[in-house]
C-alpha cells in the first residue's frame, strides 16, 4: 500500500525560554510557525523579562526550510506597535543532534528608525532520523513536479500566495486563543515583495559585496604581475607553465583548489545560526523621514485586491499618456498618485529580481563558508573525488561524456531530476537575515 505522505527525516525541538532587556512592561506572547503548524505561548502580563519555558516539536520533512518565531505585545491595540520583533532560523544551519541555545536580538522598524526591543532566548535542536534520506533530499526539487511540467506565472504565484495567507488568517482567527490577521501577515512576510527603498539599497549592497571578492582576486593578480611578492610570482609562473604543458591538469587543479578553500574555511565556520543583520539590511542607515515612512506606509493594505494590484503584470492604459506628458507634469494630483503607485509596483519587481541575483551568488559562497554543516563537507569530499577522477581519466573522454550528456534527447531527460540545480537552489543565502 502506498503511503499518503513521505516519512519525516527528523524532528525539530524548540524551547522558547524567555525575553530580556525590554524597554518597559508589556503583555507579551510568542507565535512560532514551521510548516503548517502554528503555536502560541501563554501571555505574560505586565513584565519586562517574561519567562515562558515552553517546548514545542515539529516533524521535519525538508531541512531547506525556515522556522519563524515572532514576539507580540497584547496590551497595545495598534497593529504596528504590537510587533516586538521576530527571528528566522534555517534548519540547514543547525548541526544535527546539538542544542543551539542563544539569545536573538529583537529588532523592529518604525517611521522613526530602527528600534532594539530586547532579546529572545531560544534553544533549538534538530534530530535526524535517517542520514540517507536527509542527504538525498538535497538532490530533490523544492517545488512539486507539476510546477516544472506546467509552470505558472509570477502574478499567479503571488495571487495564490495571498489567497493562502487569507485562508490561514481566517482559520487562525477561529482558533483558541485567536490570532489576529496582522500577526499572520507579520509572520508570513506578506510585504516582502513590495517596494522598499531600504530593501532595494540593501539588495544592491549584497551584489556589490559579491563583486568585492572578484575585485580582491583582480588585485591579487595585479600584485602578481607587478612582482610585489616575487616568491608568489615565481610560483604562479611555475604553475602556469605546467598547466600550459599539461592542459589535462586544469580541471583537477580547479577541483583541488576548491577542496583546499573549503577545508581552510573550516576554522572560521559559524557555530550558531545567524542573527538579523542590521548592517546588511541598511536599517540603521535608512532615512526615517522618507525611506522608512514610505516603506511602512504600504504594510497595511485595506483589502487583498489592493495588495495583488502591486503585482499585476498588465499594460496600464495611461502609459502613452505618461510618455508624452510634459516635464514637470501637467496632470492633476490624482493622476500623478496613480502613476507613482504604478512605478512603485514596477520597482518592487525589479527589487525582487535584484535580490534573487544576489541570492544566487550568496549560495555559491555558502558552499565554502560552512553555513550548512552538511553541504560543505559533502562538497569538499566530492570535489576531491572529482579531482582524482579527472586526473585519471583522459581529457578527451571527459569532454565527450560531458558533451553527450548535454546533448541528450528530451525523452531521456527529466525536468525535475536536475541534481545540480536542485542542490544549488537548496543552499542557504542571506534572505533569512534581512529585515
Automatic annotation (TrEMBL):
Keyword Membrane, does the record have it? yes
Tell me the InterPro entries matching this sequence: C2_dom (IPR000008), C2_domain_sf (IPR035892), MCTP_C (IPR013583), QUIRKY-like (IPR047259)
Q: Per the database record, which ranges form the C2 domain?
A: 1-104
Bilayer disposition of the protein: Multi-pass membrane protein
Q: Gene3D superfamilies under this entry?
A: C2 domain
Q: Where in the cell is it found?
A: Membrane
Keyword list (alphabetical) reads: Membrane, Repeat, Transmembrane, Transmembrane helix
Q: Which residues cross the membrane?
A: 234-264, 378-408
Q: Extract the SUPFAM superfamilies matched here.
A: C2 domain (Calcium/lipid-binding domain, CaLB)
Mind telling me which Pfam families this protein's record contains? C2 (PF00168), PRT_C (PF08372)
A GO cellular-component term linked to this record: membrane
Could you confirm whether the keyword Methyltransferase appears in this record?
Answer: no
User: What is this protein's record name?
Assistant: C2 domain-containing protein
What is the species of this protein? Aegilops tauschii subsp. strangulata
Upper lineage: Eukaryota, Viridiplantae, Streptophyta, Embryophyta, Tracheophyta
Amino acid at each position: 500500500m502506498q503511503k499518503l505522505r513521505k516519512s519525516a527525516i527528523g524532528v525539530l525541538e524548540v524551547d522558547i525560554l524567555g525575553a530580556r532587556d525590554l524597554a518597559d512592561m508589556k503583555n507579551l506572547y510568542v507565535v512560532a510557525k514551521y510548516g503548517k503548524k502554528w503555536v502560541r505561548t501563554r501571555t505574560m502580563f505586565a513584565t519586562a523579562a517574561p519567562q515562558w519555558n515552553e517546548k514545542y516539536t515539529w516533524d521535519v520533512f525538508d531541512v531547506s526550510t525556515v522556522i519563524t518565531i515572532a514576539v507580540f505585545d497584547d496590551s497595545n491595540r495598534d497593529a504596528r506597535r504590537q510587533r516586538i520583533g521576530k527571528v528566522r532560523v534555517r534548519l540547514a544551519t543547525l548541526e544535527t543532534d546539538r542544542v543551539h541555545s542563544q539569545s536573538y536580538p529583537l529588532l523592529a522598524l518604525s517611521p522613526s528608525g530602527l528600534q532594539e526591543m530586547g532579546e529572545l532566548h531560544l534553544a533549538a535542536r534538530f534530530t535526524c532520523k535517517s542520514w540517507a534520506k536527509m542527504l538525498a533530499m538535497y538532490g530533490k526539487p523544492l517545488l512539486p513536479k507539476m510546477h516544472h511540467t506546467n509552470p505558472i506565472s509570477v502574478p499567479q504565484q503571488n495571487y495564490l500566495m495571498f489567497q493562502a495567507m487569507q485562508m490561514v488568517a481566517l482559520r487562525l482567527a477561529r482558533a483558541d486563543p485567536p490570532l489576529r490577521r496582522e500577526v499572520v501577515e507579520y509572520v508570513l512576510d506578506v510585504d516582502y515583495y513590495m517596494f522598499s527603498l531600504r530593501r532595494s539599497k540593501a539588495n544592491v549592497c549584497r551584489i556589490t559585496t559579491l563583486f568585492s571578492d572578484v575585485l580582491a582576486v583582480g588585485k591579487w593578480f595585479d600584485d602578481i604581475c607587478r612582482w610585489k611578492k616575487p616568491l608568489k610570482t615565481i610560483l604562479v609562473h611555475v604553475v602556469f607553465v605546467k598547466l600550459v604543458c599539461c592542459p589535462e591538469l586544469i580541471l583537477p587543479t580547479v577541483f583541488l583548489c576548491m577542496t583546499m578553500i573549503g577545508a581552510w574555511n573550516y576554522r572560521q565556520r559559524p557555530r550558531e545560526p545567524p542573527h538579523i543583520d542590521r548592517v546588511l539590511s541598511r536599517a540603521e542607515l535608512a532615512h526615517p523621514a522618507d525611506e522608512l515612512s514610505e516603506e511602512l506606509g504600504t504594510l497595511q493594505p485595506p483589502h487583498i485586491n489592493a495588495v495583488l494590484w502591486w503585482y499585476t503584470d498588465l499594460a496600464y492604459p495611461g502609459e502613452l499618456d505618461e510618455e508624452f506628458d510634459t516635464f514637470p507634469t501637467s496632470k492633476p494630483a490624482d493622476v500623478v498618485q496613480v502613476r507613482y503607485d504604478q512605478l512603485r509596483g514596477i520597482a518592487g519587481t525589479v527589487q525582487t529580481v535584484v535580490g534573487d541575483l544576489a541570492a544566487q551568488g550568496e549560495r555559491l559562497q555558502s558552499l565554502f563558508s560552512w553555513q550548512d554543516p552538511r553541504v560543505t563537507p559533502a562538497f569538499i569530499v566530492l570535489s576531491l573525488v572529482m579531482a582524482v577522477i579527472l586526473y585519471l581519466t583522459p581529457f578527451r573522454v571527459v569532454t565527450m561524456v560531458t558533451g553527450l550528456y548535454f546533448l541528450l534527447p528530451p525523452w531521456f531527460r527529466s525536468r525535475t531530476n536536475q541534481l545540480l540545480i536542485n542542490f544549488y537552489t537548496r543552499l542557504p543565502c542571506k534572505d533569512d537575515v534581512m529585515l
